[in-house]
Amino acid sequence: MNGDKRADLAVVSARSSSLQVFLNTGFVTGMFGGSTGSISSRPADYEYRFGLPGYGPTCITSGDVNTDGILDVVVCDSALPTIGVMLGRSGGGFDPPIRLAVDRQPSAVVIAQLDGKGQQDLAVVHAGSNQLSILLNRTN
Ligand SMILES: [Ca+2]
Ligand SMILES: [Ca+2]
Known about the structure:
It is a single chain. This protein is an all-beta fold. Helices cover about 0% and strands about 40% of the residues. A 4-stranded antiparallel β-sheet has the order 4-5-6-7, with no helix packed on it. A 3-stranded antiparallel β-sheet has the order 1-2-3, with no helix packed on it. A 3-stranded antiparallel β-sheet has the order 8-9-10, with no helix packed on it. Strand 1 and strand 2 form a beta hairpin. The protein is globular and about 40 Å long. The two termini are about 25 Å apart. The site of one calcium ion has 8 residues, from loops. The site of one calcium ion (CA) has 7 residues, from loops.
């Protein structure tokens, strides 16, 4: 997520209504916070606050949605029938979420090419219904 070719960790919390990114330091014993620490005991390298605590995101996935070579994330919103696409910034971090309407209580999302047209599309399942939402990417 910082372009150094080392896989990093991004987590969301509905309770604190936040997205946190922990960068991979590249050392096995020091990866994600050190051999004596834990992920939760280390401050995040990047944090985004969505709004009211308790109404935050419940799932996250990553991929390059707009194919600009920078990793993006897509989060499920626990309170609204939406998902949020957060485009990665070249210098690190993410833009505020672009909210897309789906069915109630989105609970998992995947980024994949679903219609064979080359762009990354989104598929969403919901805890609040038996619907599958497919959002096809129409950007050029
Ligand atoms: Ca990295
Ligand atoms: Ca991107």
